[in-house]
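Quarterly update from the structural biology core.
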Amino acid sequence: MGRETCTPRARQRERKIRAKERSRMRR
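Predicted structure, tokenized:
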């Protein structure tokens, strides 16, 4: 989990996924 964070595109993709999960949780 996080082994492809070397590339900038993977980092942005992970940030988008995290934002989606945070929005879905809406705590």
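The chain has a mean pLDDT of 78.
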